[in-house]
From TrEMBL:
NCBIfam families: yfiA. GO terms for biological process: negative regulation of translational elongation. InterPro entries: HPF/YfiA_ribosome-assoc, RHF-like, RHF/RaiA. Associates exclusively with 100S ribosomes, which are dimers of 70S ribosomes. Belongs to the HPF/YfiA ribosome-associated protein family. Short HPF subfamily. One of its GO terms (molecular function) is ribosomal small subunit binding. It comes from Acinetobacter celticus. This is Ribosome hibernation promoting factor. One of its GO terms (cellular component) is cytosolic small ribosomal subunit. The keyword Electron transport does not apply. CDD domains: RaiA. Pfam families: Ribosomal_S30AE.
Length: 110
């Protein structure tokens, strides 16, 4: 399995990279058919006019490629670790739904 982590307007620190790898390893430990994963971390430098600080400006996106399916999730938060956590929760729900659909449509040997 290949995990690609990129940063846009942001330096990906070893701590952030390790956090992502641990969460994805835990999430996909029961799934052997994952081809690749791409994670894109961005920081939007938009300034809120009222508080003079960025609000929800840390963005995390991920694409998981499976045979016959592609899962995508995006999350925003005030800090990067929270946005990564929200993104992985969304992907967990999608992976669970994908596994349930596979179990429903498994061919039965007659």
């Amino acid at each position: 399995m290949q995990i690609t982590i990129r940063g846009h307007h942001l330096t990906v620190t070893p701590a952030i990279e390790e956090d992502i790898r641990l969460k994805f390893a835990e999430m996909t430990k029961h799934l052997d058919q994952v081809n690749s994963m791409q994670v894109k971390l961005m920081k939007d430098h938009q300034v809120d006019q009222r508080s003079r600080k960025g609000s929800l400006n840390h963005i995390a996106e991920a694409i998981i490629r499976l045979p016959g399916a592609e899962l995508f999730a995006q999350a925003t938060a005030d800090d990067m670790y929270t946005s990564i956590k929200k993104m992985t929760e969304k992907l967990k729900r999608q992976l669970h739904r994908h596994r349930q659909m596979q179990l429903i449509y498994l061919p039965v040997d007659v």
